[in-house]
């Protein structure tokens, strides 16, 4: 072994002995304005490995350890930790002729570092819930996962923290700060004095979690799953992504159940379905018309000569945004006429839409050639009713023949939407491809399998699936109308997320990858990105 090799080993040993704790590693990186992807590229590991080093899941290992330790050492020199302020010590009073001896004040105990809260993990245990959907409580007992006392129960009757979110037990070697000893008083204590135990509540008290903390806890499940698969695949990103996509359905159902843990009401997972919502045979189409668009402006053509510039735009996470919609909670009830149409009811409706007389705008009913009555969801019906109102006046109100509806709420999936949205936003900021694709797989598969699917047996709600699809199309129509009102021509609108417009679209929509933003859509066809078209002469 050469002298240089020995020096390198000694340097690595010295740096390892002085390595900052995981939380400090993250602080140093953020203080320098570095992303995990940048650090990972510099030291030769994956982004998830850096995340593991910063959360304490694993420790730096060779061959990347020395480079990482050198980076930390340099960052410590540039961004040293703020010194802890020492508590002021009051001077002891000078003893007088008749004063009592003053006991020596105990040295102030050094505060232990705040214990690291473990990241929750996806667990096979499920929280026991009552008919109201709330977690069931019982006699206090040690949690089967962490051993800390809890009043909540699992489905097999054992103590389990609600949602399997375990709180770390207080460290046994923690030393409480010793208060300064005060001079003894002359009042004698009662001879029978004894410690009074704290009153024990006669009924377990429910501990409410703030919405922000609940979202942070459920979001951490996503990060933990990505870290697990990245570690298991040994840095093979393709293998890790394949594993994450495979587990997306059970994982998103677990997230869904946890976001419902503190809900005020339960929902019907397996309602009795009317015939119109039952899965048809392979040869027959669904009876519910979701209003999927396939619009092309009749006045423009790629084949016509011209230099009119068009931009193809992409709506980010269209299905994720569509989770914000009115969903029926319970079993659907039948009604005739407009009796089942109320602001706080949702379901499916048999309607006859009015003719659409605006060829320069997409038909809100979608690409449908056959006239007459059809079954639509409440998302489509609400759009038609808005467009027939005094604010728009674009069409006549549809005729409603009958409905299957239930009491509804617009916020049923909102907690899940916010959790997945927060994870997606963080993944974009960190340039985390694995998490971004994992989140996309979760919300897309959640929607596609909530009907009758062999891949998801936890719920059968085809009405929800149709409503969410229709809501995505209605949202896209709203963006097309916004562009039209701003003076842009809508050249094409297809699918759930594709909108082609003329003019300066950045004056209408913010550009970016966020759910409220738009970006240029690129593909293999000619109508992709930015392209030119001509007008059709008749």
UniProtKB/TrEMBL annotation:
InterPro entries: Cro/C1-type_HTH, Lambda_DNA-bd_dom_sf
Annotated segments matching region Disordered: 29-64, 85-118
Domain of life per record: Bacteria
Compositionally biased residues, Pro residues: 90-100
Domain HTH cro/C1-type: 26-60
PROSITE patterns with a match to the protein in the record: HTH_CROC1
SMART domains membership: HTH_XRE
Biased composition (Low complexity): 101-113
Pfam families: HTH_31
Protein name: HTH cro/C1-type domain-containing protein
GO molecular function, one term: DNA binding
Species of the source: Streptomyces sp. CMC78
């Amino acid at each position: 072994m050469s002298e240089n090799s020995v020096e390198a080993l000694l340097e690595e040993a010295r740096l390892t002995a002085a390595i900052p704790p995981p939380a400090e590693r993250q602080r140093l990186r953020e203080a320098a304005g570095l992303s995990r992807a940048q650090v990972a590229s510099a030291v030769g590991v994956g982004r998830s490995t850096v995340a593991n080093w910063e959360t304490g899941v694993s420790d730096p290992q060779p061959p990347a350890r020395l480079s990482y330790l050198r980076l930390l050492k340099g960052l410590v020199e540039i961004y040293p930790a703020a010194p802890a302020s020492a508590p002021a010590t009051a001077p002891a009073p000078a003893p007088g002729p008749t004063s009592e001896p003053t006991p020596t004040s105990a040295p102030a105990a050094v505060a232990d570092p705040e214990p690291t809260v473990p990241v929750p993990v996806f667990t096979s245990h499920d929280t026991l819930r009552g008919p109201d959907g709330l977690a069931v409580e019982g006699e206090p007992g040690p949690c089967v996962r962490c051993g800390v006392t809890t009043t909540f129960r699992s489905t097999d009757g054992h103590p389990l923290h609600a949602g399997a979110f375990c709180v770390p037990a207080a460290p046994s070697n923690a030393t409480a700060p010793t208060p300064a000893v005060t001079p003894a008083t002359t009042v004698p204590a009662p001879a029978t004095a004894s410690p009074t135990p704290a009153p024990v509540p006669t009924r377990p008290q429910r501990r409410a979690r703030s919405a922000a903390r609940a979202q942070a806890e459920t979001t951490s499940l996503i990060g933990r799953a990505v870290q697990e698969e990245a570690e298991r695949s040994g840095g093979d990103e393709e293998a890790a992504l394949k594993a994450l996509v495979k587990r997306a359905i059970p994982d998103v159902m677990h997230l869904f159940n946890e976001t419902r843990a503190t809900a005020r009401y339960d929902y019907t997972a397996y309602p009795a379905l009317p015939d119109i919502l039952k899965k048809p045979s392979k040869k027959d189409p669904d009876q519910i018309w979701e209003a999927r668009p396939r619009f092309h402006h009749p006045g423009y053509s790629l084949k016509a000569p011209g230099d009119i510039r068009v931009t193809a735009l992409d709506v980010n996470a269209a299905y994720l945004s569509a989770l914000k919609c009115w969903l029926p909670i319970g079993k659907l009830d039948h009604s005739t006429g407009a009796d089942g149409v109320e602001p706080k009811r949702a379901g499916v409706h048999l309607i006859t839409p009015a003719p659409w007389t605006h060829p320069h705008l997409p038909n809100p009913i979608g690409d449908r050639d056959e006239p007459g009555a059809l079954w639509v969801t409440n998302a489509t019906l609400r759009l038609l009713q808005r467009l027939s109102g005094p604010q728009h006046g674009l069409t006549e109100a549809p005729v409603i023949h009958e409905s299957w509806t239930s009491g509804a709420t617009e916020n049923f999936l909102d907690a899940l939407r916010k959790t997945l949205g927060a994870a997606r936003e963080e993944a974009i900021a960190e340039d985390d491809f694995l998490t971004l694709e994992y989140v996309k797989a979760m919300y897309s598969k959640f929607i596609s399998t909530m009907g009758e699917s062999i891949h998801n047996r936890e719920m059968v709600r085809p009405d929800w699936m149709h409503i969410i699809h229709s809501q995505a199309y209605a949202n896209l129509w709203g963006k097309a109308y916004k562009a039209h009102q701003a003076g842009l021509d809508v050249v094409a609108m297809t699918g759930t997320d594709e909108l082609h417009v003329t003019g300066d679209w950045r004056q209408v929509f913010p550009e970016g990858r966020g759910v409220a933003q738009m970006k240029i859509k690129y593909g293999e066809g000619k109508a992709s990105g930015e392209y030119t078209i001509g007008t059709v002469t008749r």
